[in-house]
């Protein structure tokens, strides 16, 4: 008789323990197949374009730097993003990363090689088709780690710090001839009625202590869009760890979700970006670096866009000034 009573009690205890685990807020973590490296889910939020944006990090808490060895193909190139997905357990449906018409993911552009020094992290974001509105949790499957189940939708990590003043930049008075930029069509849903961000707006980057400040998005007399932003380093180390080239920095783009079009930086006849003249790009501790770039303008009836800056999370929606 006592045994009959104990077994149901144990079953109830197990169910309650599982429910408590699922109720834990973000961030949530799991060990990876690499000793000392954990994956941390930081946020899963419904974006203004109708997609689901997931942000996660690989954190190296071990004594050795992580460098992919020959044969570890899942860590090469953009594969840590391409091979990541989530499952809607309520409807038993799998969702993969959204790709544009060039088969590129709407996600972080990972610097190569994908290395994580000891004591550091690599933050990644990616956009996925959103599940139905009545789905409150998902099961997240990151590369190299077991699934992290019961991730709540709409719970984000703490926001970045407020912006500080930075030096201004100006557009040259005479711009070189430009080439047409092809527009890609991300298969996301139409833009929602979310209120546009107030500029300047701060977003997190992949590096702790470093933020990006979107300062302005304006229609210029030339008929183009000018975007001005700055990286601010409040940390203790140089950002990024490996300096970026001008071409890498100009992988900036914006998306007009009203017409489902992606716009990249305008380039001249020599295929050079119409943007800030920078060499190797490094921001030291306590420093700020401002950048600008020119883009084709969307139709006149478009008053808000989503801005994607290198090494940072997307900022959306942003009103065109």
Compose a concise summary of this entry.
This protein has 321 residues and is mostly beta strands.
Radius of gyration of CA atoms, rounded to a whole number: 22 Å
What is the spatial order of strands in the main beta sheet? Answer: 1-2-3-6
Give the end-to-end Cα distance, rounded to a whole number of Å.
75 Å
Structural classification: mainly beta
Q: Order of SSEs, N→C?
A: HEEEHEEEEEEEEEEHEEEEEEE
Q: How many structural domains?
A: 2
The biggest sheet amounts to: 4 strands, antiparallel
Explained architecture:
It is a single chain. With 321 residues, the protein is mainly beta. It has two domains: 26-152, Immunoglobulin-like (Sandwich); 178-319, Immunoglobulin-like, CATH 2.60.40. Helices cover 9% and strands 36% of the residues. The chain has a four-stranded antiparallel β-sheet with strand order 1-2-3-6, with no helix packed on it. Strands 5-4-7-8 form a four-stranded antiparallel β-sheet, with no helix packed on it. The longest helix has 21 residues, at 2-22. It starts with a helix and ends with a strand. Mean pLDDT is 76; it is low at 1-23 and 155-192.
């Amino acid at each position: 008789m006592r045994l009959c009573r104990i077994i149901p009690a144990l079953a109830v205890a197990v169910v309650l323990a599982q429910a408590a685990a699922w109720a834990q807020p973000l961030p949530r973590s799991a060990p990876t197949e690499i000793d000392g490296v954990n994956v941390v889910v930081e946020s899963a939020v419904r974006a203004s374009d109708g997609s689901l944006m997931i942000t996660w990090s690989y954190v190296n808490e071990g004594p050795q730097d992580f460098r992919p060895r020959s044969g570890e193909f899942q860590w090469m190139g953009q594969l840590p993003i391409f091979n990541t997905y989530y499952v809607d357990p309520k409807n038993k449906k799998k969702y993969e990363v959204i790709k544009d018409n060039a088969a590129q993911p709407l996600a972080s552009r990972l610097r190569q090689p994908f290395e994580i020094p000891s004591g550091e992290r690599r933050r990644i974001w990616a956009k996925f088709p959103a599940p139905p509105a009545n789905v409150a949790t998902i099961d997240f499957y990151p590369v190299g780690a077991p699934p992290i189940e019961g991730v709540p939708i709409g719970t984000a990590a703490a926001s970045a710090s407020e912006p500080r003043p930075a030096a201004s930049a100006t557009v040259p008075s005479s711009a070189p001839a430009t080439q047409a930029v092809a527009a890609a069509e991300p298969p996301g849903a139409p833009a929602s009625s979310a209120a546009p961000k107030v500029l300047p707006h701060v977003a997190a980057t992949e590096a702790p202590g470093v933020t990006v400040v979107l300062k302005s998005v304006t229609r210029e007399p030339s008929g183009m869009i000018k975007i001005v932003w700055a990286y601010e380093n409040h940390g203790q180390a140089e950002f990024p760890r490996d300096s970026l080239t001008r071409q890498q920095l100009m992988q900036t783009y914006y998306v007009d979700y009203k017409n489902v079009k992606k716009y990249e930086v305008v380039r001249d006849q020599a295929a050079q970006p119409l943007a800030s003249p920078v060499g190797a790009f490094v921001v030291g501790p306590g420093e700020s670096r401002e950048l600008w770039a020119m883009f084709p303008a969307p139709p006149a009836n478009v008053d808000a866009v989503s801005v994607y800056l290198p090494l940072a999370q997307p900022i959306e929606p942003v009103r065109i000034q």
